Amino acid sequence: MINLLPETQKEKLKEEKEKRILFHWLILILFFSLSLSLSLLNLKIFLSEKIKKEKLDLENQEKILKLEAKKEILETNKLISELLNFEKNQKETFEILAKILQILPPEIQVNSLSISKTVLDKKAKKEGFQIILNGFSPERQSLLKLKSILEDNFSQVSFPPQVWVKEKEIDFSVNFLTKE
User: Fold this and answer.
1) Is 10 in a helix, a strand, or coil?
2) Which of 9, 51, 62, 115 is the most interior residue, by most CB within 10 Å?
3) Domain boundaries, the chain
4) What are the residues facing 133 on neighbouring strands?
């Protein structure tokens, strides 16, 4: 097709065409920029929410760990306390056993010995030990000597009456408490 328009008119049409192309490009660039901005904004919101969630999860985990650590510390303290009480009781029991073996006359034979913790005075909340000693004495005189020694060192010494009936070869049992 032949263009019969004057040269100025042709220039003007060419300029309008370039302006339209430029306008379309600007709109396209604007649309792309707007889309990119919205996408980045969406990504920012998504990531900020995810970060908040992660912070909350981390705080919850820290709280759980603190509670578990506190629980473990309390359990460890309880165990240590129980071990210390056990050690204290064993030490006291050993001291009583050593004392009994020291004061026991050599002719007395011990068959069994039972030491148990008991309350000596409920009002004062004093604790002590109840001891049950079973043994053999070759004669009554040795048993009387044992009774005298036990009464000097312990309290509430109690022999059953039938122990005193025999003169020789006496199987005996005695109950007594530690002194307060």
Assistant:
1) helix
2) 115
3) 1-103, 106-177
4) 113, 174
